[in-house]
Amino acid sequence: MPPPLTPPSEPVRVRVPAKINLALMVGRVGEDGYHPLATLFQAVSLHDDVVAAPAPAGEFSVTMSGEAEGVGDGPDNLAVRAARLLAEDHGVADQVGAALSVRKSIPVAGGMAGGSADAAGALLACSVLWDLDVEPDGLGALGARLGADVPFALLGGTALGTGRGDVLAPVLTSGCFHWVLALSDEGLSTPAVFRRFDELGLGREPEELDVADELMNALRTGDAPALARAVHNDLAPAALDLRPDLEATLRRGEELGALTGIVSGSGPTVAFLCVDESAAIDLSTQLARLPRVRAVRRARGPAQGARLIS
Ligand SMILES: C[C@](O)(CO)[C@H](O)COP(=O)(O)OP(=O)(O)OC[C@H]1O[C@@H](n2ccc(N)nc2=O)[C@H](O)[C@@H]1O
Ligand SMILES: Nc1ncnc2c1ncn2[C@@H]1O[C@H](COP(=O)(O)OP(=O)(O)OP(=O)(O)O)[C@@H](O)[C@H]1O
Description:
8-stranded mixed beta sheet; 4-stranded antiparallel beta sheet; binds adenosine-5'-triphosphate
């Protein structure tokens, strides 16, 4: 029986980044329904904020605000599931509670790991609120049980992900990359994109699950044009098959001066890499006028992983 916890005091605030996959190499689906991956994640400066405030023991709730359309506030919400899982894993589910608030800027079902960000934020915020003793990789291991992208939302920066995308190794980068994100007027379901990927028969052999040296070198030297030549997303054909209109967004962004455009993860957000900040400002103004583009955001990468804010 763990000792009784000190009663929680002030709300704890955490900021968590969205991600882009600079490379996403996908194998054939396994018996567990997941696809083996090799991916290069980069966290970018588009964030959700998660606040955990004290609540009576056994009560776990969430209030959503910001760009949270379509996300429920019941027990299936990923932030609530994360808080409950953390409490159960530490054997304190009947001693602690949390009133969570999530302010969303990361698009819902946008391929930028928004739900995973909220789960990561809730794990970190509640671990501090409840003053838990957490092993160095304890939150990441718990997070992987909630979603393949959760460990990276905790780590941030730039990292190679293997396994389901949850086994991480940080990658050296220099400088800062300037991204313009075209947010879509409608989300895409991640499982649906993986299913279409299977139907198209696109899975790689295990030995082909590798990230190109050119990409690693471009990151190490901070060379945006070289990075633009090396980015790759195996899920793009499946996402474009489900959303053919994204092709026009990609083409137009490149015509308007982006170094390259990629579908972000499972889509439908399209991420454009620009040579510098001024090119990113120009592009973002022009892209806002495209059909089916709900909003345009500028972001820099790499950004920090989940962190406490005052
Ligand atoms: C597309 C990516 O964002 C790329 O980073 C991720 O692979 C998806 O990560 P995620 O949304 O956190 O994924 P999860 O919530 O764990 O899984 C959602 C669904 O995506 C599919 N999925 C996910 C990860 C993976 N390696 N193989 C899969 O096939 C499965 O159908 C799964 O049921
Ligand atoms: N706190 C949350 N924020 C966003 N979505 C949530 C949350 N909790 C549950 N969900 C559900 O999770 C699903 C996926 O949403 P999410 O925004 O994570 O997609 P995504 O960014 O495309 O995911 P990924 O990039 O990790 O594949 C949605 O159907 C959404 O309703």
